[in-house]
User: Fold this.
Amino acid sequence: MPEKMPIKALEQQLNDVVSIKLKDQRIFRGRLTRCDMYMNLTLSDAEELENEAIRAKYGQVLIRGNNILWIQIPE
Amino acid sequence: MPEKMPIKALEQQLNDVVSIKLKDQRIFRGRLTRCDMYMNLTLSDAEELENEAIRAKYGQVLIRGNNILWIQIPE
Amino acid sequence: MPEKMPIKALEQQLNDVVSIKLKDQRIFRGRLTRCDMYMNLTLSDAEELENEAIRAKYGQVLIRGNNILWIQIPE
Amino acid sequence: MPEKMPIKALEQQLNDVVSIKLKDQRIFRGRLTRCDMYMNLTLSDAEELENEAIRAKYGQVLIRGNNILWIQIPE
Amino acid sequence: MPEKMPIKALEQQLNDVVSIKLKDQRIFRGRLTRCDMYMNLTLSDAEELENEAIRAKYGQVLIRGNNILWIQIPE
Amino acid sequence: MPEKMPIKALEQQLNDVVSIKLKDQRIFRGRLTRCDMYMNLTLSDAEELENEAIRAKYGQVLIRGNNILWIQIPE
Amino acid sequence: MPEKMPIKALEQQLNDVVSIKLKDQRIFRGRLTRCDMYMNLTLSDAEELENEAIRAKYGQVLIRGNNILWIQIPE
Assistant:
């Protein structure tokens, strides 16, 4: 993929903490450990947030890309 | 598939117990016995959970990948 | 398809009774007579269930795979 | 398509009366006159049913396959 | 496309008046002037109906095929 | 694309004012400046309408084709 | 891609501020830093708006294209 592809911006965040909004309005936060071009990805130390409070901790989570609305990534 | 693909993280859990959140907000827990690149998968000893209580037991279940929001997998 | 594909687990149930949960939350139960890789399938002696009671009997039914959430299959 | 494909079971019903449940929960009943592999199909003498009563008569109707939940077909 | 394809039944209605039910439950009626294999189509003298009364008149309308539930076509 | 394709009817409206109904039931009106075969398109002088009153003005807007229900086009 | 493709109009806005309406009705505003043909894109200095007031600030955000309704782009 060319360097300027949006997905490349995600790959550059491997091992960084990202926040992910899903279509069901839940937010997951965790360390990005894997991702592919469909935005399928795995997080370690994954937390589910609600109104910025931690609602659940899941350890390692695989999120299906087609459920993702957006991903907040460190600059 | 390259080793670092998210789906590979699922394949490494074959025979382990995973929890799966579906788009209809139900959670299934069971032993992962098969999976493919679309996240179609089979569980044995499958249970459906609601508020962390067991709501139903199904034995062997085939889950269609496109209904999956996320999968919690052991580290 | 390789032997370990999830869809193969379904093919091995041909002529067995399976239960199928659809996206509209209805459950069908019947003898599996055909299936393909999209989970399109036919049941004979098909019944629609609601709270485990029989709601309707349909004889032979063709179910479109993309409406399926999960399939309970005998072990 | 191999003989055992689910769609083949539909093709074998050409000229028979079938009932079709759509995703919007409406049921159509009519004589199957054409079908393709996406389950696009045409009915003649098509009726729309509600609680088993006839709600409307449409003559010839073309139904888009991706709206179909299931099709009840004579055995 | 083979002569017996469902879409062919639509092509044979070019210049005839058809009624089209959309997924948002609106009905359009008009003269079919163009169609393609995805059921994208254009109507001239298009009217939007509600409970069989005319709700709006649009002149020429291009309807996106994937929103179509069914099309009533003259026999 | 053959001349009679529905999308061609849209291309012929380049520089004309069109009205577009989206799946979320909003209507956009503006001058069509670009379009492609997926019905992705750009409008200039775009207005959002509600009950035929102007609700907002956006200048140039790119609309994603898969959200479009229908497009009213001048004859 | 030909110069007149709608997506090209987006590429020409790289480094400009755009507003993006998502299917869940949220609006994001930020500087467009990357985009691809699926409308996947990244924004820097991204803000989420509600009734034209700023609801949240996210820094860098990757938005999945298939959630986008429309993009307001400077002329």
Remarks:
- Chains B and D do not touch (no CB pair under 8 Å).
